[in-house]
Design goal:
This protein has helices at 37-44, 50-61, 80-85, 111-138, 215-225, 242-248, 255-301, 304-316, 321-328, 332-336, and strands at 13-16, 19-24, 27-29, 68-70, 89-93, 98-104, 153-159, 177-180, 195-201. It is α+β, with helices and mostly antiparallel strands. The strands form 2 sheets. A 6-stranded mixed beta sheet has the order 4-5-6-7-9-8, sandwiched between helices. A 3-stranded antiparallel beta sheet has the order 1-2-3, with helices on one face. The longest helix has 47 residues, at 255-301.
Length: 339
């Protein structure tokens, strides 16, 4: 396939060997990348995907949701900037329980505290709704108010980076899913199931398609890897997961949705390239500084032992022997002898 045929306008599709793809930066995509926040919301946060999302939450959270409906994300307390930058999925089940689901690709020092903060916003949203219903049902002149009996809420975060939840993973029944609630610090008795912070560790999930044994495995594998596949695996067909593949086909989306998905991939690639360049520049600068400091220290001491100690430090710091040898005008063999 020529390079010319691998370039298409944003959001456009091409058909190759009977399969329709979207070409993004030289790569073929049949399915959306759910590890992107935009891709995740395009697939699981749009009208028509309620059943897919319901199956996912029931399977991974152990809930028994019968019906879901999407809600807006205009939480009180969010700034305009926060609203425009967030791509979470916010829904409610038939009992009034609220679910906020998001994909997180980048490490954030206090992410778990951010999850607590957003759980409070979900609660405030539910409280406002409950108070409105109370006023409309009971009336304003009863002298009574809302009794704070809010329904359970879940803040569900998929973590697609190395994170803290994997530290005690092997001691848990499901090593990839961590759920936090309010408990007594001594007895571990739960205060209630009203607030649930759920962290799903995609980063540590490394099972292959063949190694997937349970439906939980299949959901985790599909969410993490579906964008790299060209077909839905045969063993997944006929199960609850198959509809996820159908909903994720880029050919079945609007051009606006495909453009958003493409922009998400391009933005992530730009960030990764920028990080890679910064790391490389820092490495080069560290080597140059190490060589200069080593030369100055060796000359100042003016003794063979001084130079030997300097070389040992530079080698221990990871500076290549070839670079040290060239800077100090000695052979690589001489440099290596100081290890």
């Amino acid at each position: 396939m020529s390079n010319k045929s691998m370039k298409t306008p944003k959001g456009k599709l091409v058909e190759i060997d009977g399969i329709t793809y979207q070409i993004i930066e030289g790569k073929l995509y049949r399915y959306a990348d759910l590890t992107l926040d935009k891709g995740f919301k395009i697939v699981l946060g749009r009208i028509g995907s309620e059943e897919v999302l319901r199956h996912m939450l029931n399977r991974l959270l152990g809930t028994s949701i019968v019906k879901l409906e999407y809600r807006n994300t205009e939480h009180p307390g969010l700034t305009e900037e926060e609203r425009s930058s967030r791509f979470d999925v916010y829904c409610e089940d038939e009992n009034g329980s609220c679910f906020q689901v998001e994909m997180q690709n980048w490490s954030q020092k206090y992410f778990y505290k951010r999850a607590i903060y957003y759980s409070s916003l979900v609660l405030m949203d539910q409280a406002a709704k409950a108070q409105k219903e109370f006023r409309e049902t009971v009336g304003k002149d009863t002298g009574k108010g809302w009794d704070y009996n809010f329904q359970p809420l879940y803040v569900v975060s998929f973590l697609n980076y190395k994170n803290w939840t994997s530290e005690n993973a092997q001691t848990k029944k499901n090593p990839y899913i961590s759920t936090y609630r309010y408990v007594d610090i001594e007895t571990r008795d739960e205060l209630s199931d009203s607030t649930n912070l759920v962290f799903i560790d995609l980063y540590s999930f490394t099972k292959t398609e063949e190694e997937c044994e349970s439906m939980e495995d299949i959901w985790m594998y599909s969410i993490k890897n579906m964008h790299t596949l060209m077909v839905c695996p045969e063993k997944f067909k006929g199960t609850e997961i198959e509809d996820l593949y159908i909903k994720s086909e880029l050919a079945k989306m609007t051009i606006e949705q495909r453009i958003k998905h493409e922009e998400g991939i391009m933005t992530r690639n730009d960030i990764l390239n920028s990080i890679s360049e910064q790391i490389e520049e820092a490495r080069k600068e560290a080597i140059e500084i190490g060589i200069r400091e080593g030369i100055e220290e060796g000359r100042a001491e003016g003794r063979a032992e001084g130079q030997a100690e300097t070389i040992r430090k530079m080698l221990a710091a990871g500076i290549p022997a070839s670079a040290i040898a060239e800077a100090l005008e000695i052979t690589i063999e001489q440099c290596e002898s100081y290890r």
